[in-house]
Specification:
This protein has helices spanning about 15-35, 40-45, 95-110, 150-165, 180, 195-210, 220-235, 245-255, 280-290, 310-325, 340-345, 360-365, 385-390, 400-405, 420-455, 455-470, and strands spanning about 60, 80-85, 115-120, 130-135, 135-140, 170, 185-190, 240-245, 265, 300-305, 330-335, 350-355, 370, 395-400, 415, 475-480. By secondary structure, it is α/β, with parallel strands linked by helices.
């Protein structure tokens, strides 16, 4: 794997390498421009993964070329025994998106009567006893560094499999490495980010940090991304079935990674709609509690890790520009990280809240007029977007295919921008000029859509039916008599 660059005393012999590197970078830039800056509507027209209307589907679910969340899947009597490999399991305060997703999904499946065994490590990297809660069994198998010990996890897996065999094995991304996956006859993988998307993340970070290309060696990560992508495409067939969490990733896996379309499925993430709810009174209380001025013209909010790749350099510069012309705008920042101190420097228009307990997040969203996700990572789907939408908030986010093809499918849901300061400022100005009343109207549109697509119930129903379908083809038929 990879491209090996040989050095030579003859400087002229390095020219082919330079030309090759230049060609790769040029190809990356051209491909990225075409894919990431072309109008999303073109994708809606050309590829079935971008369907946004009710597909009125009848037939074999393995042929479905849209998110399974669109379907109304009824109850089933058959129960499954599932093995799950996950990088981490939420323990303690402020868990990340991957941990929240895992906990939400497998808790919901266990509540439906399925026996779930999760092989993972605690998110806080500390020692904890295994969790056995009804049908949910969380087995912690950590190495000395707190990461998953694959050998130990497999020992526990085989022990649990020797009694009553697992019906299917599921891994969150590469939690079950591809060389291990080859040993498992029936394994499905959910991709929360693929190197094709990561490559574009590195492109955007490069353009932001060194727009003129003045720093020597600043493009090293970008140049190294292509060999990693080629390597990933080669090992993806090690997994039997592939689940994508965005429509655009489904398109990439079939068109770029060349996986059989019948082996690629789209199931969108969901959030607990009993915890993330629209509540104006809770939002009002939160504003008062944290000193949001009563005369603020528009209250914006951002949540998550306050680090560079989450786009905080973009938001910092854009909001600094906005406050010069719109002094009544207020920004609430929830999370921890290096950029927390930088936001605090912006003065009285910004309040840095630090890490919020999961129970406080819904109140935080309800306190906003608009939720901002400035991420530089066009990978997967950020749960914060779905949580905010469930709370009735419109969103402002980069125009990545994973978002515009799945979450913000038209301007009625919110605002999008290209990942640069100028475009970001323009989007913020559009939202500010629309004002709280129009933002509220868009937020209600977001809430209705999120309720129909991004709930934990919809997600769990789709995964349940997927595993049943993989075990017994009878369940691949849609609709069944029990479906609504």
């Amino acid at each position: 794997m990879g491209l090996k660059h040989q050095t030579s005393k003859n400087s002229s012999s390095s020219l082919p390498t330079i030309r090759t590197t230049s060609f790769i970078i040029l190809a990356l830039l051209l491909t990225s421009f075409l894919l990431f800056f072309a109008p999303p509507a073109h994708h809606h027209l050309s590829d079935p993964f971008f369907q946004t209307e009710d597909p009125r589907f009848y037939g074999d679910l393995r042929e479905a070329q849209f998110a399974w969340n669109k379907l109304c899947l009824g109850p089933v009597l058959e129960k499954l025994k599932l093995a799950v490999f996950s990088k981490t399991w939420p323990v303690g305060a402020a868990p990340g998106g991957m941990e929240r997703h895992a906990s939400t999904l497998y808790t919901a499946l266990a509540a439906r009567g399925h026996e779930i065994h999760v092989f993972t490590v605690p998110s806080d990297r500390k020692s904890h006893p295994d969790i056995h809660d009804g049908n949910l069994h969380v087995h912690f198998a950590a190495n000395d560094h707190g990461s998953v010990n694959c050998s130990l996890a497999f020992e526990i897996f085989h022990k649990e499999n020797n009694g009553k065999s697992f019906d299917y094995v599921h891994t969150e991304s590469v939690s079950l490495p591809h060389w291990r996956a080859k040993m498992v006859p029936a394994v499905a993988v959910t991709w929360h980010g693929i190197w094709y998307e990561i490559m574009h993340s590195k492109l955007f970070e490069q353009l932001l940090s060194d727009p003129q290309g003045l720093r020597t060696g600043s493009d090293t990560e970008l140049r190294d991304a292509m060999p990693r992508l080629v390597d990933e495409i080669k090992f993806f067939p090690s997994y039997t079935q592939h689940i994508c969490i965005s429509n655009s990733a489904g398109e990439v896996l079939t068109n770029i990674y060349q996986l059989p379309r019948r082996n690629v499925h789209v199931i969108l993430n969901g959030v607990d709609d009993t915890k993330f709810v629209y509540d104006q009174d809770a939002g009002t209380r939160f504003r008062k509690q944290h000193g949001v001025p009563s005369n603020a013209s528009v209250v914006m909010g951002v949540a998550g890790r306050l680090v560079r790749d989450k786009g905080h350099p973009l938001l910092y510069e854009a909001f600094l520009s906005i406050t010069e012309n719109y002094p009544g705008v207020f920004l609430l920042v929830a999370g921890t990280g290096p950029w927390g101190k930088r936001y605090a420097e912006l003065g009285s228009n910004v309040k840095v809240l630090g890490a919020l307990e999961p129970s406080q997040l819904s109140e935080f969203y309800n306190a906003l007029d608009i939720f901002i996700n400035p991420t530089l990572r066009p990978q997967g789907l950020d749960l914060t977007l779905m949580e905010a939408m469930q709370c009735g908030k419109t969103v402002l986010t980069p125009n990545y295919p994973s978002i515009t093809g799945t979450v913000v499918i038209n301007e009625g849901f919110g605002y999008t921008f290209s990942p640069n300061v100028g475009s970001f400022v323009e989007a913020l100005e559009r939202a500010i000029k629309d004002g709280p009343a129009k933002l509220h109207k868009k937020g209600m549109t977001c809430k209705d859509y999120a309720t129909s697509m991004f709930t934990s119930t919809k997600m769990a129903s789709a995964y349940e039916r997927f595993f049943l379908c993989m075990k017994n083809s009878i369940y691949c038929k849609y609709p069944l008599p029990t479906d609504c």
